[in-house]
Design goal:
Blueprint lengths: L17 H55 L10 E6 L2 E12 L2 E11 L9 E10 L3 E2 L4 E5 L4 E3 L4 E3 L1 E4 L3 E3 L4 E3 L5 E4 L2 E3 L10 E2 L9 E3 L4 E8 L8 E6 L7 E2 L6 H6 L3 E4 H4 L1 E8 L3 E4 L2 E10 L3 E3 L3 E4 L1 E6 L9 E3 L5 E3 L2 E5 L2
Length: about 350
């Protein structure tokens, strides 16, 4: 008998992997679609942030323009139409200025707008700044070494000021800071730093005795040597020769911010920030000098001969003395563009001429 192997039934299996492949492809497409959606959302968000920043910078430019114009002409009337700041890369940014005259000074409102595309009439982003400029009862006059507005004056460590002071707000001194007025000169503090019932349109206003006490706060080894006059001040500790005096202090107009244009137009030479910095020595800043970049003054005797424009930051570290040249008949202006402004630390002494 011949042996014949048995056969068994095998089901038809062609195409069994197709549903699995379709499911995997669908999952890959789904993941890709999610990633694409996230990328598109991030791109839109980045663009929106960029448009908002453009509008913010335009509003800031409007404030700068209004300040410069009002400095030169107190009766300046703002344009009634938008001013174009930028029109490039398919976008257009503008600012619109409104200047309202009030009893205490001005209220400046600057609205920055970004249009995209540039031809659109409806902005895609808008930012608005409001600046309140308050004026006092009379103009400030006198040979003051330092003049500060309602924001006041803060001195720390071994900081020292030699000469007369006028401070619209308050003075805070701690550690070993000192003010030495000199013969016949004084420190005058008006305590002009309070709004009325939280209404900022009335700011600044001289505080009442119920709202404020002792606008001059001296702690640690700090001291004031000279005559001191201050509204609402009753504590005369650490004030000598002769110290706290009776009498009120008027609220004065602050000197208007200088126009940038004449300072920039008068520049005769340019230096780098590193060349005008100083470390353990002496340095002289010539008049009408533009300094590009950050400037660091450390353990240095610095002499200023005139107006200086610094495009970066100005930083004083450790012990420094700043002397205004005796050849000057007008106070020099140090114009600092960096958002961090001027930073002081350690012992900084300012000597007027």
């Amino acid at each position: 008998m011949m042996y014949q192997p048995s056969t068994s039934y095998r089901p038809h299996q062609r195409g069994a992997m197709l549903p699995v492949a379709v499911m995997v492809l669908f999952m890959v497409l789904a993941v890709g679609l999610v990633g694409l959606t996230i990328s598109a959302a991030n791109y839109r968000s980045s663009n929106n942030d960029h448009r908002e920043l453009q509008a913010q910078l335009a509003a800031d430019a409007g404030i700068d323009t209004a300040l410069e114009q009002l400095t030169q002409d107190p009766g300046w009337a703002a344009p009634t139409s938008e001013s174009v700041v930028m029109n490039a890369n398919g976008a257009r940014t503008t600012y619109l200025i409104d200047v309202a005259s009030v009893s205490t000074g001005y209220v400046i409102t600057s609205t920055g707008r970004t249009y995209f595309p540039a031809s659109d009439t409806s902005p895609v982003a808008e930012q608005q700044y409001e600046l309140i400029i308050s004026s006092g009862s009379s103009g400030l006059s006198g040979d003051f070494a330092v003049v500060a507005g309602p924001g006041g004056l803060n001195m720390t460590s071994t900081a020292e000021i030699n000469g007369a002071l006028y401070v619209g707000g308050a003075i805070d001194m701690n550690i070993s800071a000192s003010i030495i007025t000199g013969s016949g000169k004084s420190v005058r503090v008006s305590d002009n730093r309070c709004p009325l019932s939280g209404n900022m349109s009335t700011y600044p206003r001289v505080c009442t005795s119920a709202e404020s006490s002792d606008p001059i706060d001296i702690s640690g080894g700090s001291e004031i040597i000279g005559s001191v006059y201050a509204n609402n001040q009753s504590n005369g500790a650490r004030m000598t020769s002769p110290g706290l005096q009776s009498g009120s202090v008027d609220v004065y107009d602050m000197p208007p911010p200088p126009s940038r244009t004449p300072i920039k137009n008068a520049i005769t030479a340019t230096s780098s920030g590193s060349a005008m910095s100083c470390n353990n020595g002496s340095r002289t800043w010539p008049a009408n000098r533009r300094i590009n970049g950050d400037v660091r003054i450390r353990n240095c005797n610095l002499t200023i001969q005139g107006n200086v424009w610094i495009t970066g930051k100005l930083e004083f570290v450790n012990t420094n003395t700043v002397t205004i040249s005796n050849s000057l008949s007008q106070k020099p202006i140090i114009m600092v563009d960096d958002e961090d402004g001027v930073e002081t630390g350690g012992n900084l002494t300012i000597n007027p001429n």
